[in-house]
Amino acid sequence: MDEKLRLHDLDPLFKEEVAREPGCGHLLRCFSCGVCTAACPVSELEPEFSPSLIIRQIMYGLRTELLSSAALWHCARCARCSFQCPQDVRFLDIIEGLRRLAVREGIISPARAALLQQGETLIQDLRRRLIKRILAEAGEDGDPQEMLSHLMKGTDKP
Ligand code: SF4
Ligand code: SF4
Does residue 135 lie within any of the structural domains? Predict the structure, then answer.
């Protein structure tokens, strides 16, 4: 986020616009506690990605900045944030709503958005396969990095 906010960059109606997206009405219940960010595995690896910051940007009305931000596409859709939120704000639905808005605004093409979603599915699949492999090899000294590398190459055994 830019350090200085300019009033003419702010859209005071943005939060209502997002809240009107299917499944996003609960957005207005957020009280900025930050639990979602603390629970987010992506935030842990990439501190610049923060669900609670994204919600604050919505509340401030940073429409253009947020809809054109790569951060919208960093979420891995694991839903941990939604399970932990004390206000039952489902951030996963909000990120989906923001993505739809970015596509409707022409900020990203439907084809690129579909490609990014496809990449997420591949990553989830890889994660499932890695977990399965590690559990299957419980008791052995398998190196997860090495296993991951072989799974990515499509080979069965290190
Ligand atoms: S956990 Fe819920 S209430 Fe807290 S900042 Fe995140 S969305 Fe808002
Ligand atoms: S759904 Fe997205 S924002 Fe929420 S915890 Fe998972 S990766 Fe983080």
Answer: yes
Ligand nearest to the CA of 89: 1
DSSP state of 99: H
- Residue 55, judged by CB atoms within 10 A of its CB (0-12, 13-18, 19+), counts as buried
Q: How many domains does the chain have?
A: 2
Q: Residue 138, CB half-sphere, CA atoms under 13 Å: how many?
A: 4
Regarding the beta carbon of 51 and ligand 2, being less than 6 Å apart is answered yes
The answer to pTM > 0.85 is: no
42: Cβ below 6 Å to ligand 2? Answer: yes
Residue from 91, 94, 117 to probe ligand 2 pocket by mutation (most atoms less than 8 Å from CB): 91
* Domain membership of residue 23 as a residue range: 8-108
Is 17 among the domain residues?
yes
pLDDT tens-digit readout, 23-49: 999 999 999 999 999 999 999 988 889
* Pair 103, 153 in one domain: no
Is the C-beta atom of 130 inside 6 A of ligand 2? no
Please report the pLDDT score of residue 127 as a whole number.
80
